[in-house]
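User: Design a sequence. Structure:
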C-alpha cells in the first residue's frame, strides 16, 4: 500500500511533469467531414431490441433475457452493462415510439474536453473511445455529457470504470459496421460517412414531408455522429431541450486550458511539503 509520504512525492512529481505533457490539453482537432456516422430512421423501427441484444453480446454481458425482448419491453435506461437500449416514448404516430439510445459521438465532445488525463479520445474515424488504463475516476465526463450517456461502475470498489458505447471502434477498424447496425432487421440503422448520411436524411425529409418532420443531430452541440430522422419533435423523443448549436468544448476549453497551470501550482506546493517533511533525511512529526 502506498504511504502518505510516497503519495505526496508521486503527486508532486506527477504534477510537475504536466508541463511536458501540455499536448493533452490542446484544443480538440475536428474532422471536417465528421468521420463515420449512423442514420436512425425511427419510422422504420419496430422496437425488436435486436440492436440492444447485439451490443450486450459484443460487450461480453450475454444476451438479453427472453422476457425482455420484444416491443415495449425492457427497463429503458443506459447502464454499465447496457451501452445502448431502446426507449419507448409516447409521441409520434405510434402509441410507444421506439427510440434507440447510445452515445451520440459528438463531433466535438464535451466529455473529451473535460477529461484531465485524456482517457476519452475523439478519433478521426468518428468514435469517441475510452481508455480505462488511463482513467483516474474523476467522473467529470458524467457531468459534462449533455445527453447523460457515460455510466460509472459503482459496484466495483477496487478499480471502477466508466462505460459507454464506443461506436464499435474495433469493428470499424476491420471495415465492419457497428454490431447494432449489423443486427437491425429493418434498415432502421444505416452506417456510413456522416456527411453522406446527412444528405440522405435531408433527401428523405424533402421527398416525404407527410412521413418525416425533423432531423436531429445535424448541428446540435456542434453536430453528432448519430443522426435521427422522425415524425415528431426531438423533445417528444426524449432528447434534452435547450442545448446550444455551439460545440460545448468551446465553453469548457476556457476553464480546462488553465488546468495545467493549476496542477503545476499544486505540484510546487506538494513538493515544498515533501521537502519540509524530509529535512535531514528524517520525516518530521
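Assistant: Done.
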Amino acid at each position: 500500500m502506498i504511504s502518505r509520504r510516497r503519495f505526496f512525492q508521486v503527486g508532486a512529481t506527477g504534477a510537475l511533469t504536466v508541463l511536458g505533457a501540455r499536448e493533452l490539453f490542446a484544443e480538440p482537432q475536428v474532422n471536417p467531414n465528421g468521420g463515420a456516422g449512423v442514420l436512425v430512421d425511427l419510422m422504420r423501427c419496430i422496437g425488436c431490441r435486436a440492436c440492444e441484444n447485439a451490443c450486450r453480446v459484443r460487450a461480453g454481458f450475454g444476451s438479453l433475457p427472453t422476457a425482455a425482448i420484444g416491443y415495449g419491453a425492457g427497463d429503458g435506461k443506459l447502464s454499465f452493462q447496457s451501452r445502448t437500449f431502446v426507449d419507448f416514448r409516447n409521441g409520434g404516430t405510434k402509441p410507444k415510439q421506439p427510440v434507440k439510445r447510445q452515445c451520440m459521438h459528438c463531433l466535438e465532445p464535451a466529455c473529451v474536453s473535460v477529461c484531465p488525463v485524456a482517457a476519452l479520445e475523439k478519433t478521426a474515424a468518428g468514435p469517441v473511445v475510452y481508455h480505462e488504463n488511463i482513467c483516474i475516476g474523476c467522473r467529470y465526463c458524467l457531468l459534462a455529457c449533455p445527453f447523460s450517456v457515460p455510466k460509472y461502475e459503482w459496484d466495483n470498489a477496487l478499480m471502477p470504470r466508466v462505460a459507454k458505447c464506443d461506436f464499435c471502434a474495433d469493428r470499424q477498424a476491420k471495415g465492419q459496421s457497428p454490431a447494432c447496425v449489423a443486427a437491425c432487421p429493418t434498415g432502421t440503422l444505416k452506417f456510413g460517412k456522416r456527411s453522406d448520411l446527412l444528405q440522405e436524411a435531408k433527401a428523405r425529409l424533402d421527398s416525404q414531408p407527410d412521413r418525416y418532420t425533423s432531423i436531429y443531430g445535424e448541428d446540435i452541440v456542434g453536430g453528432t455522429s448519430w443522426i435521427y430522422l422522425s415524425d415528431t419533435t426531438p423533445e417528444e423523443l426524449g432528447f434534452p431541450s435547450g442545448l446550444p448549436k455551439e460545440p460545448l468544448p468551446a465553453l469548457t476549453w476556457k476553464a480546462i486550458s488553465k488546468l495545467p497551470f493549476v496542477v503545476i501550482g499544486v505540484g510546487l506546493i506538494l513538493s515544498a511539503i515533501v521537502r519540509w517533511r524530509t529535512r535531514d533525511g528524517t520525516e518530521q512529526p
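The longest strand covers residues 94-101. Residues 1-26 have pLDDT under 50 and may be disordered.
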